[in-house]
Amino acid sequence: MSGSQPPPTPSTPLSSPSVRALAASGAVLAALSVALSAYAAHGAGGEVRAHLQTAALFAFGHGIALAALAPHALRGLARLALAGLLAGVLMFSGSLVATHVFGVSLGLAPFGGSLMILAWLVYAADAARR
């Protein structure tokens, strides 16, 4: 088959520490988001519940995306975009959770959201170049 790539070997980028770290981080985010969602549903009410569920939704979606996309991020630009997704969701969801847990707004949610948007656009640009 022309155009197909050989299966990954230990020396390919698929086995690089950065790819494994991104994929593992995505899985951990997804797991934590399930716990956060359960807490929001059973231990929080009103506006706090809505904020925590939003944080859980973004952490889950982006966690799954990281776990699924990281093993296929062959180029540095794709890995950079995925690292941006991770940083963005940590800032966005983390800020919402910190507001509830610590009672102070870190103000990072807008920056995290903007970083996620930018990271998705960078990933799209890299995907279009393949």
From TrEMBL:
It comes from the Bacteria. The keyword Transmembrane applies. The chain crosses the membrane at residues 50-70, 77-98, 104-125. InterPro entries: DUF423. Keywords: Membrane, Transmembrane, Transmembrane helix. This is DUF423 domain-containing protein. It comes from Montanilutibacter psychrotolerans.
